[in-house]
Structure formats: C-alpha cells, structure tokens
Amino acid sequence: MERNSARYGTLLIFVVVVFAIIAARLFHIQIIDTSYKEASSNNALRHEVLYPPRGEVVDRNGEYIIRSRESYDLIITPLDAVPFDTLLLCRIVDVPLPRMRSQLEKAVRYSRRRPSVVVAGLSKETKLMLDELRIAGFNTVYRTVRSYPRKMAGNLLGYVNEVNAGDLARDGYYRSGDYIGRSGIEAAYEKYLRGEKGVKINLVDVHGIVQGSYQDGMYDTLPVAGKTLTASLDAELQAFAEELMRGKVGSVVAIEPSTGEILVMANGPTYDPDELIGRERNENYARMSSDRRRPLFNRAVMAQYPPGSTFKMVNGLIGLQEGVLRPENRYVCNHGYSAGGLTVGCHAHSSPLDLRHAIMTSCNAYFCYVLRNVMDEQEHGGAASRGGYAKWAEYVRSFGFGRKLESDFTAELNGNVPLPEYYEKVYRGRWNSLTVISLSIGQGELGTSPLQMANLAATIANRGHYYIPHVIKEIDGQPLESKFYEPHHTAVDPEHFEPIVEGMYMAAHEDGGTVKAMGMVPGLEICGKTGTSQNAHRDHSVFIGFAPKDDPKIAICVYVENAGFGSTAAVPVGSLLMEQYLTDTITRPALAEYVKSMQIQYPHYDGAN
Questions:
Q1: What pTM value is reported for the model?
Q2: What is the set of domains in the chain, with CATH numbers?
Q3: Taking 60 as the threshold, does the pLDDT of residue 262 lie above it?
C-alpha cells in the first residue's frame, strides 16, 4: 500500500512538472517572445522592393552623358486585388483598355502572390493620383529611367529594358519587372550601375490597403545607388564624329595611345538613345531592327572588314623583324606585281621604292615581295611551307588581330586570321606564298574590326605596344582592374617601328603621299596610312593614323563603306577629328561642311536596283 502511494506521488509530481513546463513555455511564447506573433502576422505584411537609382555616366571632362530621372511603376499583387474601375485606371495612366487587360492577365499568369509591373514610367503627378485612389492590390514603386543629354552614341551607351526568363534564370538578383542593361556600357557595367535593392515592410489590411510601416521601419533596408562611371569618351569629339558620319555607313574609333582609353566610338548610322526608353520604345526598336542599314549594330566592335592597304605596315614590320627586309631595300613596281601567271595590280607612282616611300605611296608590289620573303624564308623549309605561314600568323596575332582584345565591350568579335589548317583543307596541301599573296595588301581571308585597326594605329604610335582599349576609366573615382594598365608588346622589336612611322609621316606631308591632299594640317605632325578595302558592291574607304608624330595623343581608324579610295572619305573624317581634338578648332571649315554633306549611295542597303 505504501509502495503504491509512493508511485502515485511520483507520478503526480511528474505530471505537475510537465504542466508547469508547458505553462511556462506558453507564457514565454505569448507574453515574452513575440516572434511567433510576428510570424502569424506575415499574412498581413507586404514586402515592398525599394529600387536604387541607376548609376550615371559622365565623359572624361565631367559632362553627363547618361542620367537617371524620377519615375514610377504601377504594380499589382493579384491575390490582393478586388474588382475596380478599369476604365478609370486606364484614363489615369493613359493606357488603352486592351493593353491594360493584357498586362493584368500576364501578371496573374506570372504569380497571384508576387507583384508584377502593370505600367512603367509614370510621372510623379500620376503616382499621386493613384495614391489617392488607393485601389486594393495596386501600389506604385519608385524607379528611375534613363535620359541622354547629348542624344548621341546609342550603339556605345546601350539601352536598358525589362528582364526576360533567361535573365531571371542566370542571376538571382532580378525579379520579374526589373530592368537590366541590354547592350553597350549599360550591359558591360551592369553590376556597377544597378546598385543594391532595399526593402520596406508595410502592414496591409484584408483589402490589401497599406496601413502603415511595420515596426516603425525597424526591419526596412535602404537601397544603395548604382555607381557613377567616368567614361574615357570625349563628348564633344563624339558629337563631331557623328556629324561627319551622317549619311554614311561605317565607323570611327579614336584611342589615346598612352592609356588605351577610347575617345570616340561613332557609328553610321546611329540612333538617339532616348528612342529606346518610354512607351514608344517597342515601336522604335522594331523600326530600327528592320532598317537594312542596321543602326542598332555596333560596327566598331562587331563588323568584320578586310584591312586593305593599312595592313601593309604589319607586313613591313614582320619583314624587318625576320631580317628579310631592310628599310633601304628597293623593289620595282611595274603597275603591280606579277609571278606565276598571277598579277596584283597597283596605281601609277615612281619606281623602284624603298620601305618608307612604299608606305608613303601605298605600293602593292613592294609588300608582295615582303610577304613572299617572309613566308619562303629558308629556315621555314622553303616555298611557303606551313611553318612559314604559321610564324607569319603568330606575328599578326601579336598585334591583336584574330582574337578579342578583351576590351570592356561584351559584343566584341574576334576578326579572322586563318590558321594554316584552313589553307591545308581548302587547297588540299597544295598551296604556297603566291596562293595567299592577297594577304600582303590586307585582302583575302583577313577580317578586322575598326576597334582592332584603331588599336594598330595606337600600337605603331607607341612603337610596339598597346593597352587594352576601354571606354570606362573610373568607377566611383576608383581605377579599373589591373589588366587595363598593363602594356601588351607585339613580337616586333621597337626599333623596327621608326621607318614605318617615317613612311606614315611622309604620306601626310610629302608630295605623292596618299594622305596629304585631304589629311595634312599645317602645324600638326599627322602620321597616316590610307586603305581601299575590297568589297563586292564598291570598295570601302579606310584610314588609320595618329598625331603628333612624337608623344602621340590620339590614334584613329575610319571606315566608310562603299566610299572608294581611302583619301576620298576616310582621310578627311580622320584628319578633321584629330585637328579638333588636338587644337580645339577647325581650320578647314569648308572641308568639314563638305564631309558632312557627303551622302554615299547604298543600293544594297536601301533596296534600290
């Protein structure tokens, strides 16, 4: 009996202790610890994303070229929405009823619980009107939209638009309705420009109407604005370049040789970047996409042209380095080069010529001899052996051809310097230096971009090295990654560049020089080389150059499609831009007006017969 009483007492104590623990725990949960209460309130909380102002961009002189202005998006959370006056909403936001219905249906398909953008780019006045209506399930979110004070450089600056499914899958930062840089600087520097989102937690009632801030904003976070970028671009020079390229198809790239900073990247045609913001964006984009002149195409980094005669200097440098050419070597030109039943024609000029004069007059025959000497050098095993070509191609690639320069442009293409295997396959092992003789004058299978050719001009200006071309020089006042400050040396020794530079100087200053007539500027030591890049429709006009001759400040490449000889169109564009940059004035206003008024005919683009 006593044993049973003891067991009963023990059990009673155990039960009392358990109930005491439970009671204490309930007291703690309900009175002391509010986390469960807060969790139970989550159904009445709305997390509102606070979007940061997108970073802005200034040019090298501090002038704004991309700005952000205040804007608002109308957002819907379908689960919180109740019947409302759709026509009234359409009138306020100035959106047709069919489009409004389409946007609402899209939001429901995306998620009933997650917010979606219904209308973007609303003014502050419209936002205030919507706030007064207090439509259940709707709210407005602060955003910024882009504006472009200079209305220029659309291909370079790029544009911003709404993220797509691929963007959402690649980067967890984005949510439906967010915006992302889609091309140009906007895309290349997206992670710096986009900033960091914040969040505001609001209390909402059963109708989805905001009642106030949760816990007085204790758990809110502020957005962090995107970084300000300083571009290397010279806005004045860029605007002038676009004026000169009006009515033409082609591209201009100018580089500061000592840094690799891009001063100009102008395309013809281009577009006003303001056309790709706001409600007219889709219509404008469709119109430009169907334009056969391709204004959205950044020819500076994406087009692939034969370099033409501007490439002769590379062959001369390779010959000097290989020891098969000396500057004083003279070759005869009988209106061209003939061998083995093949003839490469040339224009009339004095003969024979040394290296400097061959560059000055752009002699084709001279560089045919040079290429064959390089490729047929005895140490490579005789006539145009695979090893001879392979070594030549290796030299060419050291100048940045046939590969990306690793610039800060996401769309940069490689160009083309064929591997020996290409010719082995095409000619089934039966080929020699005469087979590829067109490479001596920058034709054949060679393909280069205007950026690569401007980089060649900068490399020659530097006597053998270049810095990776880039269009942004600082991020919030901080320098770029180290690769942009490291010199890249070619496989040609610096001393071999002097006769090449002298030949380019003579081309712009001596009678008979291909640059002089349209490119000489008294007082400026311009060095240049013309090119005529062969094309099925009509040859492209090409020019590369730099100035001054010593301690150069600007290197440039100009391509004007289907404009004929390099001296007719590309040279005046290049020389005018160099003069403007170096002297801040134009001493040949008549030439500038002539170039601006020059309208090249492009039947293959415009659909004419």
A1: 0.86
A2: 45-231 (3.90.1310.10), 235-606 (3.40.710.10)
A3: yes
